[in-house]
Amino acid sequence: MRKTIISLGMLCSFISYAQTKKDSTQQKNINEVVLVGKKPTVETKVDRTVFNVSNSSILAGNTTWEILGMTPLISIDSNDTLKAEGENVTVYINDRKSVFTGKELKEYLKTIPADNLLKIEVITNPSARYESAGSVINIVLKKLENEGVKGSLSVSNSQSRKNSQYSNFNLNYHKKNFTQTFSGGYDNSTFLNKRDNENFIYSNKSLTNIKTEDYSQNSSPSISSTSELELDSKNNLGLIFEYYQYNYNSNSVANGENYLDNVFNNSYTQNQYSNGNNKNIGSNLFYKYYDKVKNKILDVNMGINYYGVNNDNEFNLNQFITPTFSGTKISGENQNREYYLKADYTQPFEKSGINLEFGGKIDFKNNIIPSEYYNLENNFWERDNNKSNRFQYIENLNSAYANVSKTFFKKLETRIGLRYEYIDFKVKQDVGNIEKTNSYGTWLPDVLLKYSFTENFNLSTFYNRNIWRPYYAEFNPFLMPNTNGTYSQGNMDLQPNPSNRLGLKFGFYKKYFISTSYWFSNQDYWDSFYEIDGKTVSMPTNFNGSVKKYNINFNTNQTFFKNKMNVNFSLMYSYTDNSDFNTKNKITNAKNYFSNIGGSTNFSYTNLFNKNINVNAWVGIFNQNNGNSYANKAMVYHSISATKIFSKLQLEASVRLNNIFMNPNYDNTTFSEIGKFRNSSTWDNRGITLSIVKRFGNQKVKENSKTNVEKDSGGSK
Q1: What total of structural domains would you count in the chain?
Q2: Is residue 714 part of a domain?
Q3: d(CA 264, CA 268)
Q4: pLDDT tens for residues 661-679?
């Protein structure tokens, strides 16, 4: 980390010196100075932080998933779960909720090239309009508005321990009242990752040390199409179609050693071979009415999404000391279907100054996970009817909301929202004929207030209530082997987790922001562990007991050298009280009170030496403390990139160095009633990426505008 900071400091000093020298040598020839307005890299608003990445060198050779990891307030844990300020998030793309979470979301976002990005909004205080269980990440893509044909083609090559290639194209056609956009990509990646596990059981003082090495080859073709017809100046009709496929082939080798009371007992080696593919087909038919004079907006969306998985997982276990060999193969063909209808309406009332927004959604899901279980008998795979199973999840979620916004005395901005959600779902397992149904309604209020003392000083406060529902696969009770020799399964009895959050944000001089928040819940669910037939099994479980979290964040965005240099700095401190949680769940040896310090800094410089060279450097430090899991060390990420722009050729060439001083390492310990479990992972994120982007046509970008108070309010506009 010290080397990283020193290197970035030297880079900043060198650029500062170079620019000063360049400016001083040309000072005599300058007759006038023209100041050009430019959005800062990071804008802090009353309810969100906006990361403006369009035309930044940070995009070079990256995917949307990688840019999210560099976004202020966002962190990614070892399970590929996105978090904002340490809490779970819901991802939107162009204000439309994504159907994916976890690893599925990661693979999907990796198919969206970063070159398509306009900005990323981290909405920490979302209004009732959003279907969110906490914060919202809204990924806003570029929209080209000029006449004719335009687009881009890019190719990238990344070298870490293994080599990976990525290419994509974007094609846009606009003629009078019709716009057609095509985009596609192909990713061919190879990775090598290493993991260490230490599982300690209190009852018999048994310790299992496991070292795992994962090798994977992945390919991901994708294509999307957006057609939009402007019927007249107020009415638009459009159709979005998306297709992506993720093909994978991986091999994992785990070597484990078992000890009883510090005495060696036995050892084993497990080999896992996995191959398969994921396919996603999504469609969205939308109608939009927008009266720009009266600011009336009606947005209607209707869509169907399909997500299918075909996979084979083969496990071969060699047990030493007491020699045994066993083989297991599990095949699946998941089928996920979603049908929805959504409408949103915005109506301002000029005389009263009130802005009213309301809408609702009807959503149906039908998800099936069949698991075929085979044992290796006499070199043949024999189906085990007792262990093969079929899991089904059926859901109907209906929601309605309303937001009312009004500004008083030209200084006090207010927003009051209320959302109601009613869910009816059924989980079913064929073996044992187990079926469970549940339904419940939930009221989710939110309040946002902002008072501007002067042009340079403002104070805002908020409250919102959230509910985090289990992901459908977390209900699946099928016992699934892991790559390291342990097992995991879902829990059909999982319940949702409600929580409350309130906070303050103080902004001054439009560059400095301090925010505090208090989050509390009387129930949460995290992984618990149990032992059965010598197997260590992890399972998501509800835990009763209060958890209290206190956060304070500082953020500033500074510009230098006539807006050429932009520096953003974020610092976070959090304090968690888990004492009641640990006592009620009899979790021993865990920390009752702990604190985290984390943050990130992003440095960018435009037109270095006046030679159309853009440079960017980023460092992020994150801790992953959640529920009954605690980080043993902070994760450190960093990257340095440079982009040369050839304006006449509409060509860009980039080089990016990824984590060259320190490879990211995830290291945490989870405590449960039966023991403690440490997991350390070293990711294959250290290397170099080379990229070339060729553009054609007029690249003028149009940004969609909104009138609701949470979009337009804030210290930086």
Answers
A1: 1
A2: no
A3: 12
A4: 888 888 889 888 888 999 9
